[in-house]
Design goal:
Elements lengths: L1 H11 L4 H8 L3 H9 L6 H11 L3 H4 L13
Helix pairs in contact: 2-3
Length: 73
């Protein structure tokens, strides 16, 4: 359930959906759909969020519970 991770990360930083929507150059409505699991998040948005939250895409997608990003080569 990746969408819960998106919400948790956003709320941990006291950000609004509108703040993240602006980062992704999308509307608040679309971002809200990502967080509720009603719309699949595009890879480009997933990568932007991983960089923004300094985590891995695997963490965002719920494939791992390790929050730190992978080491860069």
């Amino acid at each position: 359930m990746y969408f819960q991770r998106l919400r948790d990360l956003r709320e941990d930083r006291d950000l609004r959906q509108q703040d993240i929507a602006e980062l992704l150059h999308t509307s608040q409505t679309v971002y809200s759909r990502y967080e509720r699991g009603f719309q699949t998040i595009p890879v480009s948005h997933l990568l932007t969020l991983a960089d923004f939250y300094q985590t891995s895409t695997d963490y965002l997608l719920g494939r791992t519970n390790i929050r730190t990003p992978y080491p860069k080569k």
